[in-house]
Amino acid sequence: MKYSTLIFESHSISDTLRFGRAFADALPEQAAVALHGTLGAGKTLLVQGMASALGIDPHTVTSPTFVICNEYIGRKTLIHADVYRLNDSDDFLAIGGAEWFQSNAITLIEWAEKIDDCLPLNLYTVTISQRSESARQIQLESPCQEVTDAVSAAIMAS
Ligand SMILES: Nc1ncnc2c1ncn2[C@@H]1O[C@H](COP(=O)(O)OP(=O)(O)OP(=O)(O)O)[C@@H](O)[C@H]1O
Ligand SMILES: [Mg+2]
Question: What CATH number has the domain spanning 4-157?
Answer without folding.
Answer: 3.40.50.300
